Amino acid sequence: MTKIVDLYTANPDKQIFICDFSPPRSGKSRLLEPAATLSGLDFISVAYNPGRTSRINSAIAAYSIKYNLSSDVVFTLATRDMNKLAMQSLLLGADLLGLENIVVVKGDNFT
After folding, report:
1. Please, what sign has the CA dihedral across residues 27, 63, 59, 76?
2. Which of 11, 34, 38, 40 is surrounded by the fewest CB atoms within 10 Å?
3. Which of 46, 59, 55, 69 is nearest to 99 (CA)?
4. CA nearest to 64, candidates 34, 86, 19, 41
5. pLDDT over 90 at 65, yes or no
6. How confident is the model at residue 40 (pLDDT cuts 50, 70, 90)?
């Protein structure tokens, strides 16, 4: 898998195209198929529970897209929903799956 930093370092004048993809609210793998229509991109970025709704975990969805579509991926992790141990476990699992690109965000405030 290509790292965003490596791609940029190799050619700093190249524009890098990343498209956001919202994982489905269901565990049906066919619902990830629309990601296959995203062509001409450098990376597919899998969002973390957009709209504050429960969805497939972004790291797991990113791995499925990477594995099934051979696409480079980025996944988002919101620290709002996890304690330190949960984040460490998720990051170790992502490393095991070869997921090297991650965006860490605070997440929306609870209302």
Report:
1. negative
2. 40
3. 59
4. 34
5. yes
6. confident
